[in-house]
Amino acid sequence: MPEATLAERPVVTDTREAYLAAVAAIAGGHGPVAVDAERASGFRYSQRAYLIQVFRRGAGTFLFDPPAIGDFSDLAAAIQHEEWIIHAASQDLTCLREVGLDPERIFDTELAARLLGIPRVGLGTVVEELLGLHLAKEHSAADWSTRPLPESWLKYAALDVELLVDLRDKMAELLTETGKTRIAEEEFEAVRHRELKIVRTDPWRRLSGLHSVKGARGFAVARELWQSRDELARSLDVAPGRLVPDASLVAVARSIPSSKRELAAMRDFSGRASRSELDRWWGAVSRALESEDLPQVRVPGDSMPPPRAWADRNPAADRRLKNARAAVTAIAEYLELPVENLITPDTLRRVAWSPPAPADEQTVGAALIELGARPWQAEAIAGAVADSFVSARQPIPIEDPAAS
């Protein structure tokens, strides 16, 4: 398989003069605009873009340094009304919007790959399958805040956008051939309008290993340590786990040391900031030991229990869900779509747990839309789901032993 190669040596645009020249060139190009962004996830606290790549036919490939450029309003104005091609747009839209780049229309090549039934949707795999080119992906987890960026990284970044327009054209053909163009358009719009930054209640509860902590006081220690680490990480713009890993915070919450000396002596309390910021960590433990505001060990969930409990808690809903899953799976196989792209598991569970009355195609479709399903999804499954609910109401036949 041939290796994908660049048309020219990549150069980083990091001055105002070069930036404006690049914008003029992009504005003079034609067709959709391929856009990608590289962050420093796992290295930095923020999710800001440290490199933004743009390709357009008739213009070429441009690599922009966001920290150096700052204001991208000129580029935004130049391409605002064009279609933007992004691979996995849900991952990049937030950091692009932070610098003022907000598309009016997108074509998401990762999402298109899912809708086309391609089993592996990473950019390299999709490029190989549809364009017959090998795309090296060895720098995907690099620290893109590094300066200067190595040339091998820049080549990798440039190729990420240089092939996107050809990939988009091939995918558009396949979507048309399979009758999925409208489906793709609705899905692309849903991604573009989706709220990407979710504000979580008690984010400290996502600490890996928290389930091993016992008692409300231990949870209070975990909470205070997480908040202290988060404040430090934000101020330094360093990924929290690179300061003190989750396992170390959880180890302290399990043992609850009674003094700073005891904390310092803990072998399980490690990390590059575990000793240099010892006063900070002991202050967090002390606050937890003195606090009267203890967190709940078990947080009440919503009114819908996990599906494994439905057979006992709500047998009728259990039958509805099982029947609906079978119906939806059959439709997904017919459409050659992943089931989760046809309808999210949570949406199906919720409509099965609390179905509309009467449960017919129209009312089930309306309930699905209210729960966040797109119109094409409701049209595809509402009738089958309604029918599955009806069959779930049928009495289960009991065999007569005398007849056998």
Automatic annotation (TrEMBL):
Record domain HRDC: where: 215-295
Recorded superkingdom: Bacteria
Pfam families membership: DNA_pol_A_exo1, DNA_pol_A_exoN, HRDC
GO molecular function: 3'-5' exonuclease activity; nucleic acid binding; nucleotide binding
An annotated GO BP: nucleobase-containing compound metabolic process
Name used for this protein in its record: Ribonuclease D
